[in-house]
Amino acid sequence: MEPTPDDVRTQLRRGTLEFCVLAHLARSPAYGQDIARALGRDRVLFASEGTLYPLLTRLRGRGWVDTTWQESPTGPPRRYHRLTDTGRAALDAFVEVWRPYRAAVDHLLEGPTA
């Protein structure tokens, strides 16, 4: 059975989505719907809010993210997520590995440049 593009996308998301969330939170604290909107714009990184909230719970459990409740001007209070120092270290470790990893994959896919 040949993998479909959706199968490949799912596998890539499993390995990188939590770090994409950390990268988004590195810019500023955000609430879940904001994170979902930012990561789901092109439907490549993120497909469903149903995967986001369990992921945020795991990140909190690891100590990579803290949450606080803040009043919302348009409805009920919102849970804002903030990157912790431990989360920053996890993101830094990912970036250190990701860049050469991505370059190696790109090199294999595109072939050597002249």
UniProtKB/TrEMBL annotation:
<protein>
    <submittedName>
        <fullName>PadR family transcriptional regulator PadR</fullName>
    </submittedName>
</protein>
<dbReference type="InterPro" id="IPR036390">
    <property type="entry name" value="WH_DNA-bd_sf"/>
</dbReference>
<dbReference type="InterPro" id="IPR005149">
    <property type="entry name" value="Tscrpt_reg_PadR_N"/>
</dbReference>
<feature type="domain" description="Transcription regulator PadR N-terminal">
    <location>
        <begin position="21"/>
        <end position="92"/>
    </location>
</feature>
<dbReference type="Pfam" id="PF03551">
    <property type="entry name" value="PadR"/>
</dbReference>
<dbReference type="InterPro" id="IPR036388">
    <property type="entry name" value="WH-like_DNA-bd_sf"/>
</dbReference>
<dbReference type="InterPro" id="IPR052509">
    <property type="entry name" value="Metal_resp_DNA-bind_regulator"/>
</dbReference>
